[in-house]
């Protein structure tokens, strides 16, 4: 190309009269003579810019296409520079202490061979480069095809499976990352583990009782093995359909049966099962979920189960998990009065109450059944906030007037006023009264406020709710705005055990009366079992219209493996050693085996008065936590979990008495 043809792009030669002008600048100098003598020069500047723009666009397009291709880094390194081959041909690093050996001249991987080498190696290098490029492109194509396959497989999964996979990946990352610490680990004080008193008692002396207790342990193994086989890691088991079952009470938290059964496994000395349950808790129990849970149910089952497992075994993971979950429940107390919400999203901290609960009220049995667990959370964490929250509930209650000295089931957390005046020692009210007594016992009998509230409440219950039928059966009715409903629920049957447990601390002239109340309630509840075809108790039974201790409505005839009647038998046995309580307990064992045991576990039944079994297909977690534990204790010696050292929460999780000496040291 002639040199002159490049001038329009890079400049023009200086013409006459333009002495010393810079190249490319002559067109702008001189008084018009320059333009007149060379009219084409007027377009040279424009041409420059246009050509520069075109050239820049071309360069950008070429390189941009490369950089924006998928996996461009591989394309650049593999196709242009063959770095993959370089990596493959580099010698491995020397072992520690050995000298690094350089490759011999001309060996593969040297810079000269990468760029074609010297002499006659250029053709061979070009062929190798071509092969390398094809290999890299094939690998890129394979990567993309694999990614497409994985995406297709993911899209075919159910949303729950995808969420589970994501949570599992997240959990694995958090567990394996360097410097990981357990949640709450930094805040937990060092506590010496106190060996539990009576965690395992001696064998019953009576051979028949020993055989009966062994049978109950076999029942526990049948329930546990089937849960493990068909529903491991899920909340509960459907023993007929042999699959997992989840209640919305726990949101997305899983493993209710595992956590609920931990202490039962421990006291029954099922060591292998306890170990596998502990490992599941350690690796899989996750509270970092976006879910709305029942504060009450999660507290009594999960917090209570973890606390008792820690106190029995000393395994630190249980303490950490209990405190972690306790912290997640604290936002439930963020109400104008501090009376907690019934439901809480444990991720967002947003709470609400059951829509059916008397104009958005909180429920007495729910906000009144946090005290034992939260006092222990403060003890184990060194954080007083848990105890402060539940003591504030007491403060609010003590400021309110009680109709006839009774506690209505509903309290508005915003206004601090009672809702509907409905009083029950069964559902909606039951465990509030239980926890008043047990708070006093658990404090080593120092909680005088809890003691006074309990005995005052029992006095009002005896005056206004306790009645006798025409044949002498004592029952606890329900109070609705001053009118009695002569109905007693299965849940109310726990009260027999409560009365006898509190008899020792009652005013001097009331001790015998409290024992009598316990015995009479136990007898009535046994009658509710004995008057059914299956010898299992209905959900509720009535004392009106000429019937006594019988369910008259179809929606009250079911039995869901509930423990309250057996719980009362166990307490009555411990305090009286009357053999009839073991006899009644064994009748319940035989009925459970005959009507509730199935190949896949144990199921509730829909109608205890029917001769035809109709199962509800749910093995409740409390069957392992409460029903079987109370049966096992009923047929054990009194040295296992002795009452002077242990208090049971309402899910039968044993919590140790906090002695005055220990509490003083702790403070």
- Overall pLDDT: 83
* Rg result: 39 Å
- Structure class: mainly alpha
End-to-end gap: 97 Å
The strand line-up of the biggest sheet is 3-4-5
Describe this protein's structure.
Helix 10 packs parallel to helix 12 (295-313) and helix 15 runs antiparallel to helix 16. A hairpin with a 2-residue loop joins strand 11 and strand 12 (483-485). The chain has 24 helices and 18 strands. With 667 residues, it is mainly alpha-helical. Residues 1-43, 67-126 and 174-186 have low confidence and may be disordered. The termini are far apart. Strands 3-4-5 form a three-stranded antiparallel β-sheet. Strands 8-11-12 form a three-stranded antiparallel β-sheet, with no helix packed on it. Strands 1-2 form a two-stranded antiparallel ribbon. Helices cover 49% and strands 7% of the residues.
List keywords for this structure.
single chain; 667 residues; mainly alpha; 3-stranded antiparallel beta sheet
Present the secondary structure layout.
Elements: H1 7-10, H2 33-37, H3 44-67, H4 72-80, H5 83-89, H6 111-114, H7 122-155, H8 159-176, H9 207-231, E1 236-238, E2 243-245, H10 256-267, H11 271-284, E3 292-294, H12 295-313, H13 316-329, E4 343-345, E5 351-352, E6 362-363, H14 364-367, H15 371-381, H16 385-398, E7 410-411, E8 422-423, H17 430-442, H18 448-464, E9 466-468, E10 474-476, E11 478-480, E12 483-485, E13 487-489, H19 495-501, H20 511-530, E14 540-542, H21 564-576, H22 579-596, E15 597-598, E16 601-602, H23 621-634, E17 646-648, E18 654-656, H24 660-666
Antiparallel strand pairs: 1-2, 3-4, 4-5, 6-7, 8-11, 9-10, 11-12, 13-14, 15-16, 17-18
Helix pairs in contact: 4-7, 9-23, 10-11, 10-12, 10-23, 12-13, 13-15, 15-16, 17-18, 19-20, 19-21, 20-21, 21-22, 21-23
